[in-house]
Amino acid sequence: MGGRVTRVFRNFNVENRASREIGKEKPTPAPWHRTARLDAMADSPEIKEEVLRKDDRFLTLLKDVYVESRDPPMRVKDGGGEHLPSKQEEKRLTKLGHLEGLDVKKVPKGKISLVEALTLLNNHKLQPQIWTAEKIAAEYSLELKEVNSLLEFFIPFAVQEFPKETKKAITSHKPKKLT
């Protein structure tokens, strides 16, 4: 609200104020006064001659100076090649089935996509005799140790429904009043 009020006063009669400011005569700047030292140097021929004269003593000293420079040897950084691929990675097509539109199409060997991970975890959960760790490792080009860790530590969600009497017990629970 305060911004609207200040904006009204700020924009009030802005065109007339701007044209009045533009129409004003500009003040003339103060004159630049030349300093005495610069005037003396510019007009004095002795100073000009002293500046332009070559001094033989300084020239001989300058000829005695010998500068030798060497560039330090170039050092190659070890981590510089991380951005460039050193070798072409071998890729495989994903095994997605009906979920093709949800994930990537090609994955490097030794890795799996997110949809593939959920699929193989679900397959192992539903049919552990068929989808063993060895079969999953062979099917998805993974290491057996990694597949065993995956099956041990990652479990897909399980949906559970509560019986109706439990639902009534939960909804009929009244919170205690604090006094």
Automatic annotation (TrEMBL):
GO cellular component assignments: mitochondrion
GO-annotated biological processes: mitochondrial respiratory chain complex I assembly
Protein name as it appears in the record: NADH dehydrogenase [ubiquinone] 1 alpha subcomplex assembly factor 4
Quaternary structure, from the entry: Binds calmodulin. Interacts with NDUFAF3.
Region ranges (Disordered): 19-38
Organism: Cardinalis cardinalis (Northern cardinal)
Domain of life of the native organism: Eukaryota
Homology family: Belongs to the NDUFAF4 family.
